[in-house]
Inverse folding.
């Protein structure tokens, strides 16, 4: 069927006649419409701005957290006495527990390897493995204060509180150390050096305090050697001390 | 036919992001569409508003556009809908014969220019414009959709909500009145 059959008249002559009307839209209207058409093709800002800002925020947060872990995980500032004695604040523990736990493991490895020609002391090694060491418990606290100072200086979280609890229960009711010993580990270390040079006989109490000062300073091998010498020089003294200060 | 297809292709290219395609499409259709709207609306300021609204709808519909019909058919349907919306907003009844002589005179005021103008006297153009402006709305709408928009009778019937025979008779009445007004200057079919 020819579609033209339904056409009531030929539209072309009329279209040409109407086309003589030269009426045109104003130029300003043309510009507005063309501008709108171009604008419609430009993607809205919000399409990329929102996800981009979210991604930037997430990236920034990750970088900050990583930076904090890296800054808080430096093992050089964590001493063994921190691990054995001082309870770390909870907030510090939350920041970098993993970093703090790496340090005692490292120290333990060091202590397990005895120096050539020196027998590992029988009572010191268990202390590093978290087993009871009554004699070592009290002098360890002599190093607590300087160790805490070191931690504060380095803003260093140091220890898992659960491990502290184990040590406290393993060392049966340690009595508070003397204030003078607690406050001056470095002085005790100095005394040890001078006593070594003078080779004067020392009391076992002073000797033990010096050993703990060594331990607090991170000189584990020397402390172990000194402890062996102490045991040899004063047989049974450590055992008696353990009984007196359970 | 190729020209109509070209319009549809331009619209598709614009929908795909080619701004120059829209410029070409606009240039091809702006004059006819603007005349169509002006003859329906009969108000210069309102003509600009309706014309812009029409193209805004074209722009907004670019992603939904499918060339199932000729582009001009789609375009003039949009334009007709925009005119209807304008009449609703302005409170004017769409279907009534205007008696406003000033509006008729404004709509009939057609400047003479272009190649065909040589063959058409100023007097004939004036008579055509005036006769067209005096047509009843439904006849004028049907005539302009048919001639300027290129819609078929069935499409006009669908667009105006009338039956096909009604649309056809409106077209015949409109042509008869225009021929009567033009006399010897009426186009020969």
């Amino acid at each position: 069927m020819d579609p033209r059959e339904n056409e009531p008249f030929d539209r072309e002559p009329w279209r040409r006649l109407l086309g003589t009307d030269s009426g045109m839209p104003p130029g300003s209207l043309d510009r507005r419409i063309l501008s709108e058409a171009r604008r419609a093709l430009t993607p809205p800002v919000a399409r990329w701005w929102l996800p981009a800002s979210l991604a930037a925020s997430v990236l920034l947060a990750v970088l900050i957290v990583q930076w904090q872990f890296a800054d808080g995980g430096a093992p050089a500032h964590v001493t063994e006495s921190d691990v054995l004695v001082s309870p770390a604040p909870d907030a510090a523990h939350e920041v970098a527990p993993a970093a703090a736990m790496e340090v005692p493991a490292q120290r333990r490895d060091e202590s397990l390897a005895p120096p050539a020609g020196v027998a590992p002391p029988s009572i010191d090694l268990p202390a590093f493995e978290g087993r009871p060491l009554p004699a070592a418990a009290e002098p360890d606290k002599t190093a607590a204060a300087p160790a805490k100072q070191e931690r504060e200086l380095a803003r260093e979280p140091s220890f898992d509180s659960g491990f502290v609890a184990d040590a406290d229960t393993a060392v049966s009711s340690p009595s508070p150390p003397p204030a003078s010993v607690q406050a001056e580990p470095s002085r005790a270390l100095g005394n040890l050096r001078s006593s070594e040079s003078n080779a004067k006989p020392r009391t076992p109490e002073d000797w033990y305090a010096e050993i703990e000062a060594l331990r607090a300073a991170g000189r584990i091998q020397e402390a172990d050697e000194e402890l062996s010498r102490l045991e040899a020089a004063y047989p049974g003294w450590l055992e008696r001390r353990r009984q007196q200060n359970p | 036919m190729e020209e109509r297809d070209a319009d549809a292709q331009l619209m598709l290219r614009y929908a795909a992001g080619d701004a120059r395609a829209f410029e070409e499409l606009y240039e091809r259709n702006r004059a006819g569409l603007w005349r169509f709207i002006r003859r329906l609306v009969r108000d210069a300021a309102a003509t600009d508003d309706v014309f812009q609204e029409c193209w805004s709808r074209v722009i907004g519909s670019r992603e939904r556009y499918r060339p199932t019909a000729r582009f001009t058919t789609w375009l003039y349907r949009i334009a007709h809908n925009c005119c209807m919306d304008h009449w609703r907003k302005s409170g004017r009844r769409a279907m009534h014969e205007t008696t406003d002589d000033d509006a008729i005179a404004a709509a009939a005021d057609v400047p003479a220019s272009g190649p065909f103008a040589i063959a058409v006297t100023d007097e004939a153009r004036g008579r055509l414009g005036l006769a067209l402006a005096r047509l009843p709305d439904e006849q004028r709408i049907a005539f302009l959709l048919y001639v300027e928009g290129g819609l078929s009778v069935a499409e006009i019937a669908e667009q105006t909500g009338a039956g096909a025979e009604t649309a056809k008779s409106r077209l015949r009445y409109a042509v008869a009145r225009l021929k009567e007004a033009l006399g010897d200057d009426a186009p020969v079919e």
In short: The CA atoms of residues 85 and 140 of chain B lie 17 Å apart. Chain B is about 70% helix and 0% strand. Chain B touches chain A through 48 residues (CB under 8 Å). The radius of gyration of chain B is 17 Å.
